[in-house]
Amino acid sequence: MPPRRRARYDEDAAPYGRRSSSGVPVEEDGPYDESEGEDEDERRGDRAGEPRRRRAVLNAVSAGRLGLRYIADLTSKDTEGVTSVEPVENGWLVDVEVVEDRRIPSTSDMLSIYECQVDDEGNLMSYRRTRTYRRGAGAYGGGP
Description:
Elements (H helix, E strand, L loop, with lengths): L37 H7 L15 H16 L3 E10 L2 E11 L8 E10 L4 E11 L10
Antiparallel strand pairs: 1-2, 2-3, 3-4
């Protein structure tokens, strides 16, 4: 089986994004950098020279995906998945399960839960490891 490609938070979501002849992505405005209503502002005379930034709309699914990508990139470890996504003031709290140490048999693997806070625009604000446990023991102790 080919190795699984780890998605990165800084890659285009679209697999067929525009690229230059050298293969480097062409700089484009991201979804959060687009100006909205510039013509209206110019007609009204409000901040004619400054484009307004559209407020990012981040839902639980996209916050979970971002949290998973951030943790995978920062820890350079295999992620098992998102275990929880919770709205907090000015963003989201995402818990991600990570394989810290692979062992034989796999029921002895050491896993960890990482908690990361993502703001409303999708930026990582903080992350920390909150718990480490053996795969067979479960996240909160006890046996299978």
